[in-house]
Amino acid sequence: MSSVAAAAQGAGKGAAKAAARRRARRQKRHGESAVRRPGWITYTVLGIALVISAFPLYYTLLLGSSDQVTISQEVLPQLLPDASIFERFADVMGNSQVNFWLALANSVIISVTISVATVLTSTLAGFSFAKLRYPGRNALLVFVIATMAVPTQLGVIPMYILMSEIGWVGKIQAVIVPALVSAFGVFWMTQYLDSALPFELIEAARVDGASMFRTFWSIALPAARPAAAMLGLFIFVMQWTMFFWPSIVLGSQNPTLPIAVQNLTAGYHDDYSLIMAGVFLVTLPLLIIFAVIGRQLVAGIMQGAVKG
Amino acid sequence: MAALTTTEPETGSAPPAARPPRKLGFSQTLSRWDVKVSPYLYISPFFILFALTGLFPLAYTAVVSVYEWNLLGGQGDFVGLQNYVDVLNQPTFWKSLVNTFSIFLLSAVPQVIIAITLAALLDQNLRNATFWRMGVLVPYVVAPIAVSLIFGRLFADQFGLINGFLGVLGLDPVGWHSDRFASHIAIATMVNYRWTGYNTLIFLAAMQAVPRDLYEAATIDGAGRVRQFFSVTVPQIRATIIFVVITASIGGLQIFDEVKLYDVYGQGGSDRQWMTTVLFLYEVAWGNQRDLGRAAAVAWILFLIILVIGFINFRFSTKIASSGTKAPKVSRAVTRRLLAEARAAGEESAARRGVQQSTTTTDRSDS
Fold it and tell me: Residues annotated as region Disordered (chain A) (predicted)?
């Protein structure tokens, strides 16, 4: 718990600074008179929303620091988490059926590889769509956008057949390879590069004799950095929390973290305290990441919203 | 247009002097090919991989669905539409379809309403604005499967916190697992928990793009806060509302993670009272039946349903959208805001970009 609180505090400080900046800007834009502070009702409602957001995680922690017998008899076993949660964490980590460390390694490898690769393929395609002119460009871009509405998840059966044909069932490349590209990513980078990368820079590079790829690598990629970081973050969260396809193709023997959670429920479905400790443990890495770069995630969603 | 075609003659190391009839050097030929082929080369990873792992499986699902196809035994005889008949004759399939729609409606409607309300609250001159925004986004980083387990416990029929709370209020406990409709509410709550904050930020972004002079005009006309919300904000963010509803319906009809671990058995309840269609598909293919052919038929039926709903959404939304939102103005305003933000963050080339943006826009218009 303490780590979450500390992290939230740290984030609060950074957030305050950003808010101050924003306030200053807004005042400049509207003149002093337009600024009006919202009343306590606003803060109360937002406070309730915040409690609802955080409470389920806190409750998870409470159940995790309790024990099986207590939580099968009491609704709210205790009000504060205690140190016994760490024993529970150790139980989860050391459990052979859960395969926690393997799951962690798999999750890291899968999420990082896919994020990096997707950012690269998306930026490359985005550069092509936004800044190069060639026959068929618009039609192809429309096609990419249309594919965002295609429920590809429903193709799992042939995908599974395909993976078992080439012997990839149970191997993490079965999760990685299909996810190396993203229509959303292509669209996102196209939008960004379209406005952020001036044609003059590309022309200048071309005049200097840079090849197309060199132009991409030295001009477009650096210019795309802010949007690329946000895209990477999104894909990372998405892959880290992904369950459906990995659970089908990987199975419980070679799990990712979400599958490890399922393993926990399969083996210990009456020990809810242990399960909850596992749930919290699995959520923790993303919570830490969120505390550090949540601001960017917020900005990314808001930026993608209007453009998407 | 121009950008690259005009530069083309200058590429390579040819001297600028005019010597018209001249054989192209190797590097020039190479450079010309570079210009012609590269654009396609750069988009090819997406198209190749998407064709292989997105489109092909979806299309091939139709093929699998007309064969007898066992998980272990592999492809069997051609059976025509028999799999479809079998699926449509299974009461569980219909049950799952009803469950899916019920859960979808119970989640989509409150979610949009709550998200817009929260966004309206956040779209004020708040202290620590980023803190509040991050606060509503916390659930987004919790994996759906974890949400499923946590809420499965919160909504436990016995010794669940929600029922405990109802008891304190003097109400009877609800069978959140045993009762069909109650279980749908619980699962919809999970979906709302994870996605409301995310959609709040999307609405917030749209609201911030609404030109502020509209509010000033409304104030002068004597409209109060509530009136402004319904007469200015909501019409202005209509396009975004449609966007959120469409994404929610594509995702909501494929819900799986949240229901899988609502209880530890993962089969949608003792009476399949909260089994969704994708969970049904999973059960048919990888559960007891191990029948990939039949599961493919389920997938294809669901695909068609999503397609139809998407189409209705689309028709509906173009009708609404054509009745006058100011989309281009909105997006321009946001671009400007983002540029300002980037500049404030001390980004190097941002100042230059601000100037050049106008040139890119003109460039775009004549291409």
Answer: 7-31
- Residues forming beta bridges with residue B78, ordered by sequence position: B67
What tokens appear for A291 in the block?
């505390």
The better pLDDT of the pair B16, B106 is held by: B106
Contacting B residues, span 211-230, partner chain A, CB-CB under 8 Å: 212, 216
Sorted by where each starts, the structural domains of chain A and their CATH numbers stand as 100-254 (1.10.3720.10)
Q: Look up the ipTM and state it.
A: 0.81
* Chain B residues whose beta carbon lies within 8 Å of the beta carbon of residue A305: 201-203, 205-206, 240
Mean per-residue pLDDT, A174-193: 90
Q: In sequence order, which ranges of chain A are alpha helices (DSSP H)? A: 2-30, 40-65, 68-71, 84-94, 100-131, 137-147, 156-165, 173-176, 183-196, 199-207, 212-215, 221-223, 225-241, 244-249, 257-267, 272-307
**A–B: how many Cβ contacts below 8 A?**
365
Separation between Cα atoms, residue B279 and residue A269, nearest integer Å: 20
* Cα distance between residue B50 and residue A118, in whole Å: 12
Angle (CA) A161-A166-A167 rounded to 5° is 90
Nearest to A150 among B54, B159, B209 (CB): B54
Residue of chain A minimizing CA distance to B192: A53
Q: How far is CA A171 from CA A168, A255, B89, in A?
A: 5, 10, 36
Judge whether B271 and B182 are in contact, CB under 8 Å.
Answer: no
Please indicate, yes or no, whether the overall pTM of this predicted structure exceeds 0.90: no
Cβ–Cβ gap A305/B206 under 8 Å: yes
Least confident of A74-88, A175-189, A271-285: A74-88
| Domain boundaries, given as residue ranges, for chain B | 91-346
* Distance of residue A172 Cα from the nearest chain B Cα, in angstroms: 15
Q: What does the pLDDT read at residue A23?
A: 53
List the structure tokens of A182.
Answer: 């993203």
The two structure tokens encoding residue B67? 């064969």
Distance CA B61, CA B317 (A): 30
Please, what CATH class does the domain formed by B91-346 belong to?
mainly alpha
What confidence score (pLDDT) does residue B73 get?
80
**Average pLDDT of span B8-37:** 64
Q: pLDDT tens digits, residue range A208-265? A: 888 888 989 998 888 888 888 888 988 999 999 999 999 999 988 889 999 998 888 8
- The mean-pLDDT minimum among A36-50, A102-116, B197-211, B333-347 falls in B333-347
Length of chain B (residues)? 367
